[in-house]
Amino acid sequence: MRFLLFVASLLEVVSVAFAQTAQAVTDNPIGAHYIATTPAGGNKGIYATVSAETARNGVMFTININGAELTGGPFLYHIHDQPVPASGNCTQTLAHLDPTVRGETPVCDKARPETCQVGDLSGKYGDIPFLPGFNAEYTDPYVSLKPGIGAFIGNRSFVLHYANKTRIACANFRDISNVTSSGMISPTGSMGGVNGSMSMTSTPLTSPTGDTTTGGAESSSEASSTPTGAAVHGADANGVAFIGLTGLFAGIFAMIM
């Protein structure tokens, strides 16, 4: 029996030794940003936010977990291969994200994170000693925010575990790359849209003559201008004076005749 256990352990070590190590991802899209937020599946009293965004040397994770007080730590957390289904069943997220097919044993060696499962975040960066009140921030070079490759996490899930690997809570990553602060205010005072673009309302602008234009665009009646830049509306002032003077002379000439 001991011999069989020894052989099994030896095979595990050999399989890890020959497994392909994770490769650093150097072409994550600029500005890519995904976030997973609980409660979604599992314990509804767990309030976790896991932010993943493109950084200079990989993906920067910012993690905050609060809510219900739990016993049974230290706690583990990973990125799992499949998303949380509509039922909220965390078990259906399947295994850890593992594009190199490394497996879970032997345990991750923090000193060699490239040899760990890509999704084993707590294995690479430390377990959670107690809950609530966990905060962490670090950059992982092996996770990807580029769709189409095995290390991509945008269509996967975050799962929180007890020390015995029982799943506590889970949530899907969603793309928030184009979402900016909802507090952005446009020049007209209206709030920006969800996509971060500012709503621009056309405001009447007063011309030098007192007329108004729409949105500041030059109207067809203001296509020509005087040397001073003022818009011309009606006859030229010199022309008006000339016509008036001509009428005066005509009247005098009629009286003489």
From TrEMBL:
Catalytic activity: 2 superoxide + 2 H(+) = H2O2 + O2
Record's subcellular location: Cell envelope; Secreted
EC number assigned by the record: 1.15.1.1
CC terms in the record's Gene Ontology section: extracellular region
GO MF annotation list: metal ion binding; superoxide dismutase activity
Region described as Disordered: spans on this chain: 192-230
Keywords, comma-separated and alphabetical: Antioxidant, Secreted, Signal
Biased amino acid composition, Low complexity: 196-230
Signal peptide segment: 1-19
Domain of life: Eukaryota
Primary location: other
Matching InterPro entries: Cu-only_SOD (IPR053257), SOD-like_Cu/Zn_dom_sf (IPR036423)
Class of this enzyme: oxidoreductase
Family of this protein: Belongs to the Cu-Zn superoxide dismutase family.
Protein name per the record: superoxide dismutase
Organism: Aulographum hederae CBS 113979
Biological classification of the source: Eukaryota, Fungi, Dikarya, Ascomycota, Pezizomycotina
